[in-house]
Design brief:
single chain; 540 residues; mainly alpha; three-stranded antiparallel β-sheet; globular
């Protein structure tokens, strides 16, 4: 009998250990096909070539698109090692700069917990203990938590991701009336962004019930109110008030330019034009000042995230691309489309764009380029002697910075205006069953707050309803009627063939037009309302 009970006890212990290991084991990440296609389509943004067997690289690129990790802070190889450590449930990170920072946080605050469970220490913790964790360290915790949430999303485990998110939102709720108000605000906004990502992925799943999305919307609006309440508590305290004196002079209806000049303008040059012609609220000005006075590597992204009202026009004209959601009923799409609040953050809107079509998230960050105006840049470029043409600047050597000013930034700013206007035109057509004859009609029906501007001459963006195109004039200041001209000298074509990849160089005309005196910089910048490429006419 004694031997029987010993065997029974050993068997029960072995079974329990196996079940315990299975319960806490992390399955390998298998990103959905649409995410993998997205990563492949954005190959030009990869910091290094991606080996096919490195899922960690793919997750890194995905996280960069969601603005979870800053590419300049974490390199791809180091993040791959961290990703594998999280997946394996290890208690320590491998070697590396990021690993050292995270391990220090674990050593100081967490004893013996795996990375999967370390965030649980904040449940029920006393406020003084929480305040010992710096904001930057707390953000590092949020990286890991959002990585875990994305893992569950990619595997379709929406219930697990939901449970984790709302457990962690309890942190902000617990801290909002304490001295940790700033930390509570950061936690709330970071987790709120992660929850929006989850909402968007759930909306893209045809099997997700609409009632679950409606419940998510209500919960996230409550979370936003808690986050703003935490921030308002911070801003009312003396040690923050002393850093915000310029804001007291601003009336509630002050313009964005005034607010930026008084706050962020002291730390970085104010942008020439703000994206999509919108304005900040007074609360968002305070956030700008707060972030400008507490510089961290994430200042820019947090500023964008908190400036939710800046995309109100874009959200208003947003429509789902039905060709990418063929498995979802049209009525259901219309119901889902009404769920997104106008206060959605810019990062969440970027994720929505990636799922349902539209411009790349990169185009919405163009207003952060600290440059001179395009007109001033073109005048400076005209003074530079160049054998390839008056306005052509080489893409290498000492002139590369000038080329970036005049070409890259101008095109990106034009794309901001053109893509926003294209969405408004398509929304107008759905509402009124006709194409607007002028862009002023979009302003009259409040689909745009004001006429979109050409970043080169600050005139209204050019629009041709018959051809369904929008365009900006070239850097030569001439309006070519929305025609892209890629004509230049024989020397220019010879140099372009050397610089471009073979497959792109093969597309260049074999017999260049030697009579042309213009260059690519003198061409109009043309965008189609339907999102299709507008090709230049072939050279004669």
């Amino acid at each position: 009998m004694r031997r029987f009970w010993i065997h029974w006890l050993l068997t029960w212990t072995l079974i329990t250990a196996l079940q315990f290991d299975r319960l806490f084991a992390e399955e390998p990440v298998a990103l959905p096909e649409d995410v993998l296609r997205l990563v492949d389509s954005q190959a030009r943004y990869r910091p290094t070539p991606l080996p096919a067997d490195e899922d960690g690289y793919r997750v890194l690129i995905e996280l960069q698109k969601l603005r979870v990790v800053e590419p300049s802070i974490v390199n791809d190889r180091e993040f791959t090692d961290v990703f594998r450590a999280v997946s394996a449930g290890e208690k320590k990170f491998p070697d590396g700069e990021l690993a050292q920072r995270l391990n220090k946080v674990i050593d100081d605050n967490v004893d013996g917990l795996s990375l999967v469970d370390q965030f649980a220490r904040f449940r029920g913790v006393r406020f003084p203990d929480v305040l010992k964790v710096s904001v930057s360290e707390l953000r590092q915790f949020l990286w890991i938590r959002r990585l875990q949430i994305i893992q569950h999303q990619s595997q379709g485990k929406f219930e697990d991701a939901t449970r984790w998110l709302f457990d962690d939102l309890h942190i902000a709720e617990m801290l909002e009336d304490s001295e940790g108000g700033l930390i509570a605000w950061l936690v709330g906004y970071s987790l709120e962004a992660g929850a929006y990502e989850l909402m968007l992925r759930m909306a893209a799943d045809p099997n997700c019930p609409i009632e679950q999305l409606e419940s998510w919307q209500r919960r996230m609006l409550d979370a936003r109110k808690r986050s703003l309440h935490s921030l308002s508590q911070c801003l009312r305290r003396d040690y923050f008030a002393v850093q915000l004196p310029p804001l007291a002079k601003l009336p509630p209806d002050a313009t964005l330019e005034q607010a930026v000049a008084e706050t962020v303008g002291r730390h970085r040059p104010p942008p020439e034009r703000f994206a999509v012609n919108l304005r900040f609220t007074l609360r968002e000005w305070q956030v700008l000042a707060l972030l400008a006075n507490h510089p961290t590597p994430f200042d820019r992204d947090e500023t964008i995230r908190t400036s939710s009202q800046q995309v109100a026009d874009v959200i208003r004209v947003l429509e789902f691309d039905r060709s990418r959601a063929r498995d979802i009923d049209d009525d259901e799409i219309d119901r889902v489309a009404t769920l997104w609040p106008e206060s959605m953050g810019l990062d969440a809107f970027s994720v929505l764009q990636l799922h349902f079509g539209g411009p790349s998230w990169e185009s919405w960050q163009a207003f952060w380029n600290e440059i001179v105006s395009a007109v001033e840049a073109s005048e400076q470029l005209a003074e530079i002697p160049n054998v390839f043409g008056k306005y052509f600047i080489a893409t290498y050597g000492d002139l590369s910075k000038a080329d970036s000013l005049a070409v890259s930034v101008t095109r990106r700013r034009t794309r901001i205006e053109a893509t926003t206007t294209s969405l408004a035109i398509r929304r107008f057509e759905r509402l009124y069953l006709r194409t607007p004859k002028t862009l002023q009609e979009l302003v009259d029906v409040k689909l745009l707050s004001e006429l979109p501007r050409d970043p080169i001459d600050d005139q209204p963006l050019r629009y041709d309803p018959s051809r369904r195109i929008l365009w900006s004039i070239g850097l030569d200041g001439q309006d070519d009627g929305g025609v892209q001209r890629f004509e230049s000298s024989e020397k220019l074509f010879a140099m372009m063939r050397k610089l471009l990849p073979k497959q792109d160089a093969a597309k260049l005309p074999k017999v260049p037009n030697k009579r042309a005196e213009t260059s690519p910089l003198a061409s109009d910048i043309v965008y189609s309302v339907d999102g299709k490429d507008v090709l230049p006419p072939p050279n004669p």
